[in-house]
């Protein structure tokens, strides 16, 4: 009988989730490897074994946040209506952010001021919005969206959902009807790009 791996994916996920929580709540000074290991019930050896140290942990936090976002976006069914798909992808973006708010500061902020994502991490981040790029391209091809650079529409749609989610996660001004307002903003934002 094979021995179970001591440092498996479940431990990796627990460490990343807790590291994201610590970073989000306390900033980089709160992300100590000893505290992280103790909070998760493991050793600092496990942290070093899985991530190689704090810089590797921060890199994995960034990549994991975008991987989770990409996974959520990829689950949105592709239909014959790319404009409806854009709305569905915007809702999936919000669902991902609300499920993983502790990754947001590393993904889109300067939670760790000296962190610069490497090329592999940047590619993971860019892959997360490919379903949106695809929906925009299909919308242009079908004559539903303005005949312009698809990157311009993709960026505007991404900025819209990101701004809405950032307000919801970070602003005390967000209200209980945020969900309905979010959907209306998506529909109206996309309408501005229709032919």
UniProtKB/TrEMBL annotation:
Protein name (database record): Transcriptional regulator, TetR family
| Sorted UniProt keywords | DNA-binding, Transcription, Transcription regulation
Extract the DNA-binding region annotation as residue ranges: 32-51
Give the matching Gene3D superfamilies. Answer: Tetracycline Repressor, domain 2
The answer on whether this UniProt entry bears the keyword Transmembrane helix reads no
Tree of life domain: Bacteria
Organism in which the protein naturally occurs: Saccharopolyspora kobensis
GO terms for molecular function, please?
DNA-binding transcription factor activity; transcription cis-regulatory region binding
- HTH tetR-type domain location is 9-69
């Amino acid at each position: 009988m094979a021995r179970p791996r001591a440092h498996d994916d479940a431990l990796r996920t627990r460490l990343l989730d807790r590291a994201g929580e610590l970073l989000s709540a306390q900033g980089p000074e709160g992300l100590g490897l000893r505290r992280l290991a103790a909070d998760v019930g493991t050793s600092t050896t496990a942290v070093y074994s899985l991530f190689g140290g704090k810089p590797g942990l921060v890199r994995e936090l960034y990549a994991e946040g975008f991987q989770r976002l990409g996974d959520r976006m990829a689950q949105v069914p592709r239909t014959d209506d790319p404009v409806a798909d854009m709305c569905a992808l915007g809702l999936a973006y919000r669902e991902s952010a609300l499920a993983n708010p502790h990754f947001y500061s590393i993904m889109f902020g300067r939670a760790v001021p000296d962190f610069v994502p490497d090329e592999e991490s940047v590619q993971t981040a860019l892959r997360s919005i490919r379903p949106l790029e695809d929906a925009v391209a299909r919308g242009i091809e079908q004559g539903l969206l303005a005949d312009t650079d698809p990157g311009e529409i993709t960026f505007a749609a991404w900025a819209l959902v990101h701004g809405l989610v950032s307000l919801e996660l970070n602003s005390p001004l967000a209200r209980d009807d945020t969900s309905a307002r979010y959907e209306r903003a998506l529909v109206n934002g996309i309408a501005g790009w229709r032919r």
